[in-house]
Amino acid sequence: MGRQIKIYDAFSGISLMEKNRLARFLIAHEPNSSRESILEALDYAVKGKPSFGGFITVAIDGSDILGAVVANCTGMEAYNPKYLFVFVTLGRAEGHADGLLQNLLERALQHADGDIAMHVKPGHPALSIFQQMGFEAEYLELRHAHNSPNLSKNAG
Fold it and tell me: How many Cβ atoms from other residues are within 10 Å of residue 105's Cβ?
């Protein structure tokens, strides 16, 4: 059958079997993300639970998943990008060979009908590819954990 790229969204939906297969792929290749956060991002993308939606772009070859982009719609396009690319993931064996990442991102960019953000750590192996495709580093993201022990230390 050869390599192809599929897109799932609220209109096309995603079968439970395909969702579980994609979740297993992401769990295997996104070690810093929990199973729960991966399933939540997938559900939000196809409106499997109340959300603003989004889409999932998946590169497959036969029955093998080669890579995926999971995009969640933020619902805040007046002051933030409309989409957040939650996961941009390739299988370890795929690396960035033969333009797979570029093809996957191009399809995701074509499907998005608004601005896009993604969180990328410094030194990410695909950072230069993201930048070549038009992504720019505009902000430094700071996070605060809800139950941070530092909060009580700084209170006066």
Answer: 25
Beta-carbon count within 10 A of 91 CB: 16
Beta bridge partners of 88: 69
Cβ(107)–Cβ(116) below 8 Å: no
Q: How much is the pLDDT for 97?
A: 57
Q: What is the pTM of this model?
A: 0.88
CB 88 within 8 A of CB 112: no
C-alpha to C-alpha distance for 3 and 8, rounded to whole angstroms? 17
3-state DSSP call for residue 54?
strand
Strand order in the sheet with 54-61: 3-9, 54-61, 64-73, 83-90, 116-118
Per residue in 115-141, pLDDT (tens digit) is 999 988 887 888 888 999 999 988 777
The larger pLDDT score, comparing residue 144 to residue 66, is at 66
Q: How many angstroms from the chain centroid is the CA of residue 108?
A: 10
